[in-house]
């Protein structure tokens, strides 16, 4: 029997903590749901962790009321991409101009999470990474029993943080959420060293989310929702 998805009047799938998030994700595929976003209202730590562990990239947004004087409200936007950019480690491409820089920097895994997420917010703002979602992500780190774990990667030179990113580990897949850099080329160096770290620690692949040119230049491949699910859940 198909999983009973619920829809808003606008045609978006609505999810809440009572849902089986993995079954819902499979139903998106099986029903041919042609949107990338679903909607949710609950900023509940286990619920959001389950969404992440089911292949959703969880975003959020503040909705301004159409009625003057009425307060707006926050929503969750669990995103299950129609097309994802994924890096399979043997396909990593390192530009010749980047190779000499790799030895000048040190990559540190999950040593300065709070600072890195703060720097991402300072760089990119909180348009989709709203304060309640950030708090949920921080709270997830306090519960090792959850099926998804937020972590960070920091790039250091001379003991100082020069670039970094944070994301989510679910099973053997790491999904990027946001990153920043403070020196030329350090964003690329950080990504190359992160890729090598993930490969050396037994990860299956790196989920880079929305396709962008710089990801393709690094060697990432664009895959559809069906292939992503086949690769994401077996690992």
What does this structure look like?
By secondary structure, the chain is an alpha+beta fold. Helices cover 29% and strands 27% of the residues. The protein is built from 7 helices and 11 strands. Helix 2 packs across helix 4 (131-140). The protein is globular, with a radius of gyration of 18 Å. The two termini are 25 Å apart.
Structure in a nutshell:
The chain is of the alpha+beta class.
List keywords for this structure.
Translation Initiation Factor IF3, 235 residues, two-stranded antiparallel sheet, seven-stranded mixed beta sheet, globular, alpha+beta, Aminopeptidase, 2 domains
- Strand runs, count: 11
Low-pLDDT residue intervals, each spanning 5 or more residues: none
| Largest sheet geometry | 7 strands, mixed
Instruction: Name the CATH superfamily assignment of the largest domain.
Output: Leucyl/phenylalanyl-tRNA-protein transferase, C-terminal domain
Question: For this structure, what is the CATH class of the largest domain?
Answer: Alpha Beta
Distance between the termini: 25 Å
Structural class: alpha+beta
- What best-fitting shape do the alpha-carbon axes yield? globular
Task: Give the second-level CATH assignment, the architecture of the largest domain.
Answer: 3-Layer(aba) Sandwich
State the helicity in percent bands: 25-40%
Report the radius of gyration as a whole number of Å. Answer: 18 Å
Strand order of the largest sheet: 6-7-8-9-10-5-11
What is the helix/strand order?
Answer: EEHHEEEEHHEEEHEHEH
Tally the helices: 7
């Amino acid at each position: 029997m198909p999983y009973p998805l619920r829809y808003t009047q606008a045609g978006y799938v609505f999810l809440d903590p009572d849902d089986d998030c993995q079954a819902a994700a499979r139903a998106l595929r099986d029903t041919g749901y042609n949107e990338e976003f679903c909607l949710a209202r609950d900023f509940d730590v286990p619920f959001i962790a389950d969404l992440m562990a089911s292949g959703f990239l969880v975003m959020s947004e503040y909705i301004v009321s159409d009625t003057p004087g009425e307060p707006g409200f926050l929503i969750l936007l669990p995103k299950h991409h129609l097309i994802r950019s994924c890096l399979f480690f043997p396909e990593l491409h390192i530009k010749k101009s980047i190779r000499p820089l790799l030895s000048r920097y040190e990559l540190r895994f999950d040593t300065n999470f709070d600072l890195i997420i703060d720097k991402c917010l300072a760089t990119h703002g909180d348009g989709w990474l709203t304060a309640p979602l950030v708090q949920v992500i921080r709270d997830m780190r306090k519960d090792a029993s959850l099926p998804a774990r937020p972590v960070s990667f920091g790039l250091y030179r001379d003991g100082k943080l020069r670039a970094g990113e944070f994301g989510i580990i679910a099973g053997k897949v790491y999904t990027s959420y946001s990153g920043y850099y403070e020196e030329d080329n350090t964003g690329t160096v950080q990504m190359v060293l992160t890729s090598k770290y993930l490969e050396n620690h037994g990860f299956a692949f790196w989920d880079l989310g929305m396709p962008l040119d710089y990801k393709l230049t690094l060697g990432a491949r664009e895959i559809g929702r069906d292939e992503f699910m086949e690769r994401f859940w077996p690992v």
